[in-house]
Known about the structure:
Blueprint: E1 24-26, H1 30-40, H2 48-68, E2 71-77, E3 88-94, E4 99-106, H3 110-123, E5 129-140, E6 146-155, E7 163-168, E8 171-172, H4 176-188, E9 195-203, H5 205-214, E10 218-225, H6 262-267
Parallel strand pairs: 1-10, 4-5, 4-7, 7-9, 8-9, 9-10
Antiparallel strand pairs: 2-3, 5-6
Bound molecules: 1-O-pyrophosphono-5-O-phosphono-alpha-D-ribofuranose (PRP).
1-O-pyrophosphono-5-O-phosphono-alpha-D-ribofuranose binds near residues 107, 109, 172, 173 and 264.
Amino acid sequence: MRDTLYANVPFQLSEMPHRYGPNVHLVGNPFLLSQLAKLCSKGTVQPEINRLVALLYSDLVKTVINAEFPRKMVAMPTRMIDHTPQGMYQGEVIDPAVRAVTVNIARAGTLPSQVAYDLLNTTVDPVLVRQDHIIMSRMIDAKETVVGSNIGGAKIGGDIDDAFVLFPDPMGATGGSLCTAVSMYKDKVHGTPRRILSLNLIVTPEFLRRISREHPDVVVYALRLDRGLSPPEVFGTVPGELWEKERGLDDRQYIVPGGGGFGEIMNNAYV
Ligand SMILES: O=P(O)(O)OC[C@H]1O[C@H](OP(=O)(O)OP(=O)(O)O)[C@H](O)[C@@H]1O
């Protein structure tokens, strides 16, 4: 007789309430926010910074797979099958027949994308998993204000038809980098993706506003929302309630409270 215990495995996102709409998920929890606080603090440099980024992404990617990916019922013999016909796991698993593409937005997104790629390969059929690469830089003017994002080169390994397309990038600041990358896929890469997912450690209200306007189909999972430069009336309100007044970017488009330029610190290259 079959045990139905794992026929419908419950999973519920633990997320912070907000008014940014159904495509935004703020999924920080006490454990991850502690690690992220450490990652953002002044004394955290190599090798600890990469260790923390990898740990945080390992968790975030699993959360996204649990929440977004389809499941499938399986009956898989265990090693005990040689001793008893009851040696079978019967229940749900993540459907391995799913296409997934993770995009390395170099440079801060390089390690996060590698973590995502490795985890996807252990979860779905590796033949269906791919990693693409985009060299991307925020462009600044003479006053060091960000004026846009530029693609310096890309290696795109094929189409994205019916694929989950993941953009794991630690900082969502102005949203320029993500919007440029998503537009490039929509304009130049063949196929209709099943879902476009942005996986961030920290996002700003400005980032969410830009993404939701330019690419409302993108689903954002972020551990933390930073709106530290907002006027006093914003603090204490539910995120998104006073969206137009919320501010998380300084004059140079760095996130506040933030954690500095992750790409710079992770690569020890201050350019
Ligand atoms: O939302 P946006 O304003 O576009 O900014 C965020 C981008 O900047 C950071 O990267 P990184 O430090 O690697 O690159 P940079 O040289 O573009 O600052 C970050 O990881 C994003 O890719």
